[in-house]
Amino acid sequence: MVIRPIAREERWQAELVMAAAYEYGVDPEKEKENAKKEPDVDGLRWEARNRALGAFDENGRLFSHVNSREYSVRFDGTVQKMGGIGGVATLPAYRRSGAVRALMEDQLRDMYARGFGLSALYPFSNEFYRKFGYECGAMRAIWKLSLSALPRWPQTGTVEQIFPDGDFSPLLEVYNICFAETNLSALRDVYNAALQKPENWNGTRYVYVWRDSAGVPGGLMISKKKETKDGAELNCTCDFGNENGFLFRDAEALHGLLSFAKSAFSSDYATLRFTVPANIPLQSLLGENYETQCELSPNGMLRVVDAEKILRAARCRGKGTLVLRIEDGVIPENCGTFALTFGEGENRVARVGARPDAVLSIGAFSALILGARPDGGARWENGARILRKEAPFDGVFYGKPCFLLDLF
Question: pTM (2 decimals)?
Answer without folding.
Answer: 0.94
